[in-house]
Amino acid sequence: MASIREEKMTRGALLFAFNSPKYNYYEMAVSTAKRINHFLDLPVTIVTDSESLPVKQSYQFDNIVMAPADKNNFRDWGLWINKGRYRAYQFSPYDETILLDTDYMVNSDKLLTTFDLPTDFCCHDTTSFLMHPNAVQEMLSVYSFDTLWATVVTFKKTKRAEQIFNCLEMIQNNFNHYADIHGFISATFRNDYALTLATRIVNGHTTLVEDVIPWNLLHVGKNTSVYRNNDDEFNTEYTVMFDNWNRGKIRKEYITIKDMDFHVMNKENFMELISE
Amino acid sequence: MDTTTLISEAKARFNHNSAKAYLKDKYDSKFIVADQSGLWRANLETINFLNSSIEEWVIIIDTFDNPVRVNRINLLEKLNETYSKVMNAWHEEWLQLEKKR
User: Fold this and answer.
1) Are B25 and A108 contacting, i.e. CB atoms less than 8 angstroms apart?
2) A88: containing domain
């Protein structure tokens, strides 16, 4: 008699980390992976290259996937290796995956809720900024769509999710063309923009509400710095300091936050937060 | 430098409105409940409707605007539990915030 084996869906997180001359993304990924283990109880796979991977590793990832770094993308501060994210589908060893930016500070188990959403692919479509309650939502251009965010993407191994990632590759390879159509600047490749277009194409040129994580992605933006309230490795309490410019003068303002995930845009600030 | 000293040396002022907005952002997301093939918000409107109905099974619109047939009592229990848990936590943190006024 054939045995019946109940197969459990595997879950995990995936991080892409390629060091640039300015920032150590591998180090950021280690810190984020530890927090994912602690708060989400998920294993973490890293996608990196031999230049980023240190000889002596202080942290044991669930899997290390070696991939070539595409060094053809630049931001105002220098080389930014963010291309190739479309390979997340191929590289993830899990049935259900949370794909995260390495500068996302996990402070709660909230992301686990994304596994319960009745969809096979979801990401954020709205953001809020700490200390900027009324910040406007970003658009690809004034003539185009609201941006989806590639900072947090949860996907299952389905045909549709695979199609979205395949489409992401197509858009990356033809980014100038899509920039011309949608009126945004193509000089710097943005995964957020490519993801916005890829999901729309696969969904029949529309955005499905089911593909949206039903809460805001919280950013720490310009003129804002975050400080740890204590030195515990898994500290979840922070002071957020904001330089409020008013009539040529800076007025410092602050709030305290706790148990709240956030995405730190300022990489120096993120490095300070994770430094021991 | 610890954050208390940092705040004091920078002569930073506590921004009550931003703190309130942060709390709303934080707790708003916690009202989301996935149950019975639909996605729900544990808000008063839904809870009151489920409470006032007498049917065992009801069809209601979820947050994705899909009509979903649900077991009323089961959903009501989940939403009630989520609502009180989240509101209690929000209220507790809000009280801490009020002390900083």
Assistant:
1) no
2) 11-217
pLDDT tens for A94-133 read: 999 999 999 999 999 999 999 999 899 999 999 988 888 7
Subunit contact B29:A214, Cβ cutoff 8 A? yes
Q: What is the DSSP string of B22-63?
A: HHHHHHHGGGEEEETTEEEE--HHHHHHHHH---SEEEEE-T
Residue of chain A whose Cα is closest to the Cα of B37:
A118
CB B33 within 8 A of CB B40: yes
Q: Is A260 on the interface with B (CB under 8 A)?
A: yes
Residue A3 within any structural domain of the chain = no
Between chains, do B64 and A110 touch, taking CB under 8 Å as contact?
no
Domain-located, residue B1: no
Within a domain: residue A4? Answer: no
Q: Which positions in chain B touch A256 (Cβ < 8 Å)?
A: 19
Bridge partner list, A242:
A224, A253
Encoded tokens for A32: 């984020």
Q: Do B22 and A260 touch (CB under 8 A)?
A: yes
Q: Is B13 on the interface with A (CB under 8 A)?
A: yes
Coil vs helix vs strand at A113: helix
Which of the four pLDDT bands, split at 50, 70 and 90, describes residue A1?
Answer: very low
**pLDDT value of residue A240:** 93
Q: What is the value of pTM for the model shown?
A: 0.92
Residue after which a domain boundary falls, among A184, A217, A250: A217
Size of the A and B interface in Cβ pairs below 8 Å: 76
| Burial (CB count within 10 angstroms: exposed 0-12, middle 13-18, buried 19+), residue A166 | middle
Residues A92 and A175 in one domain: yes
